Amino acid sequence: MPKTVSARALELAERRVPFVHARVVRAQAPASAHPGDEAIVYGDGTIDGFVGGVCAEGSVRTAALGALHDGGPLLLRVLPQGEAEFPQTPGARVVVNPCLSGGALEIFLEPVLPPPLIEVVGHTPIAEAFVALADVLGYVTERSLPDGPPAEQAAAVIVAGQGRGDAEALRAALDAEVPHIALVASRRRGSALLDELGLTEEDRARIHTPAGLDIGARTAPEIALSMLAEVVRAVRTTRTPLPVADRPTTAVDPVCGMSVTVSADTPQLTAGKDEFWFCGTGCRDRYAAGLVG
Fold first, then answer.
1. CA-to-CA distance for 91 and 37, rounded, in angstroms?
2. 118-156: string of b/e by CB count within 10 Å (b at 16+)?
3. Pairing mode of beta strands 47-49, 92-97
4. Are the C-beta atoms of residues 175 and 169 closer than 8 Å to each other?
5. Nearest-CA neighbor of 145 among 168, 126, 123, 162?
6. What does the pLDDT look like over 24-35, one tens digit per residue?
7. Measured distance CA(60)–CA(58) in Å, rounded
8. Mean pLDDT, rounded, of the chain
9. Residue of 158, 113, 110, 173 lying closest to 138 (CA atoms)
10. Which residue from 266, 113, 124, 240 is spatially nearest to 181, judged by alpha carbons?
11. With a threshold of 0.85, does the pTM exceed it?
12. CA distance 254 to 274
């Protein structure tokens, strides 16, 4: 990967910013892109790098944003009109782009999404075991609570202070609307703590206590495993929103029929009360010429 793209990708990953890594894996002459050309596609449709000319870039942008929101990798094949068909199967998509001057492209689109971030409260054996197991799954753990608010984008808060900072951490997690909140406590102590906080029934229902799925756990690592299993279930079933921009609007180019992503730099034309968007300036100019004629 070119240094500029590579450095930017690392920076985005560290900042937990979702993006799509687009890589040209096959190019047929006279395509302007070559195998190994790469780019980053941001959530707003901006492209940093090079994966082909303006027509191919438009197809990549639209497919990449779809992959970013769907969360799965995609092999995109961009064909000039009239080329032989390429089978469209799960994980592969075909786009026939009439504007290409020639040369098919195959581009691998890989969404890079930040792993779930879990706030862990306490330094008890259960808390330490949870952090160790979360690391095995590739989850990120933070220790912001109870001295400050939970980290932004936290998917869950695990309160395992065993009485040290539990009340403050629960209140902060509720205020921050963290999707999953779990308290390590016996049923009796957990109920007493929730009573002490004076929570509404709705807020009480948001706190899982005793924390973890019932697997008969006894040791600290076993309890941590049951808690992590509960977190995985919450993350996978509730689809905790990631910091991905809303899916951009798409439009159909009235000249070539391509689906284009509407962004600030998308060629556009207003005709009376109607607005049209185009894959490139060529289609826009042809359409404008037809209106004049």
1. 21
2. bbbbbebebbbbbbebbeeeebbbbebbbeeebbebbbb
3. unpaired
4. no
5. 168
6. 998 877 778 888
7. 5
8. 86
9. 113
10. 240
11. no
12. 12
